[in-house]
Design brief:
Number of helices: 5
Structural class: alpha/beta
Number of domains: 1
Shape: globular
Strand order of the largest sheet: 5-4-3-2-1-15
CATH architecture: 4-Layer Sandwich
Number of strands: 15
Order of helices and strands: EHEHHEEEEEHEEHEEEEEE
Length: about 270
C-alpha cells in the first residue's frame, strides 16, 4: 500500500499569560528549532499568544489573517518552509474568538477554525464558531479543531471532520489541572485518549493535540496549571507520542506520520 509520510512537531511551549511579545519570540525559537529538525508541520498550542481565558484578549486580540500574530506566523512559515498550525486569539469586529489557523509554507492561511465546543465558563469572553473545514495539501487532507471540540457530544466535531475526509486532525490545546492535582495517583490524559481513539479507529485517521505549559493567573481557573502531556494517536487508536507532564515541561516533540494513500473507512459504523 502506498503511503504519504511527513514529520510532525508539537511545540509544547510555555505561554506567559498576556505577554504577547514574549510568547511570540519564544514560539519563533521553537519553530526554527523544529524546522531545523526537518519537521514538515509544526503544531502550537491553543489561545496563542495570550493564554486561554486571559483578559488581555479584550485589548490584544487581532484579526485573521491581517493581524500581527497571524502575519508573524506567516513569516515564520515562509522562512522555514514548514506548515504552521497554531491557536490564535482573534478579533472580528466586536467579537473575540478562540481560533486556530493552518498556514502553508507560502505564508497563506489555508484553514481558519473558531472553537465550537468552548467550555461554558469561557462564553463571556469568546464567541463560538459555526463551521468546519478541511484542507488538501501535498502531505494529505488536514482537519482542524481546538481542544474541547474533541469531546463534543457524540464526538460530533471529530466525526464530521472524518466524514469530510480528514487524514489527520490537528488540535491546538490548553490542558490544565487544579493546583492539587496528583499526577501519580491520577495520570493525566484519559479524557483525550478516550475522545480521540474511537474516531481514529472509526475513520482510520490520526489526531494530534498539542498543549502549552505554564500558569493560569486570572479568570475562573485562576491557580490552575497548564501541564503539556501533548498526544498523538494513530489510525488504530494507539498512542504514538505523549509529551511530558508539568507546568515546566516545555519541549518539542516529534513523530513520523504515515497516511494511507487509498480510500479509508466511511465512518458509518461507530467504534
Amino acid at each position: 500500500m502506498n503511503r504519504k509520510s511527513f514529520k510532525l512537531a508539537l511545540a509544547q511551549i510555555h505561554l506567559e499569560p498576556g505577554d504577547r511579545d514574549q510568547n511570540l519570540t519564544r514560539a519563533a525559537r521553537f519553530i526554527h528549532s523544529a524546522a531545523d529538525s526537518a519537521a514538515n508541520i509544526i503544531l502550537l498550542p491553543e489561545a496563542f499568544p495570550l493564554g486561554w481565558m486571559d483578559p488581555s484578549a479584550v485589548t490584544l486580540a487581532d484579526e485573521i489573517p491581517r493581524g500581527s500574530t497571524c502575519r508573524q506566523l506567516a513569516t515564520l512559515a515562509r522562512d522555514t518552509g514548514a506548515y504552521i498550525c497554531s491557536g490564535v486569539i482573534e478579533r472580528c469586529k466586536e467579537k473575540i474568538f478562540n481560533s486556530a489557523v493552518l498556514i502553508n509554507p507560502s505564508g497563506e492561511v489555508i484553514l481558519h477554525h473558531r472553537k465550537i465546543n468552548e467550555l461554558a465558563i469561557a462564553h463571556d469572553l469568546y464567541s463560538l464558531g459555526d463551521r468546519l473545514a478541511v484542507a488538501d495539501t501535498p502531505l494529505g487532507r488536514i482537519g482542524l479543531m481546538i481542544c474541547a471540540d474533541a469531546f463534543a457530544p457524540g464526538h460530533a466535531i471529530t466525526r464530521a471532520l472524518g466524514l469530510m475526509g480528514a487524514e489527520i486532525i490537528l488540535s491546538p490545546c490548553a490542558w490544565a489541572v487544579s493546583p492539587d492535582h496528583d499526577n501519580t495517583a491520577h495520570p493525566y490524559g484519559s479524557l483525550w485518549i478516550d475522545s480521540y481513539a474511537p474516531v481514529c479507529r472509526e475513520f482510520g485517521l490520526w489526531i494530534a493535540g498539542c498543549s502549552n505549559v505554564g500558569p493560569i493567573r486570572t479568570g475562573p481557573w485562576q491557580g490552575h496549571r497548564c501541564i503539556g502531556s501533548s498526544l498523538v494517536l494513530d489510525p488504530t487508536g494507539q498512542i504514538q507520542l505523549k509529551g511530558s507532564y508539568g507546568e515546566s515541561a516545555e519541549e518539542v516533540l516529534y513523530v513520523d506520520v504515515a497516511l494511507r494513500d487509498s480510500a479509508r473507512p466511511t465512518g458509518t459504523t461507530p467504534s
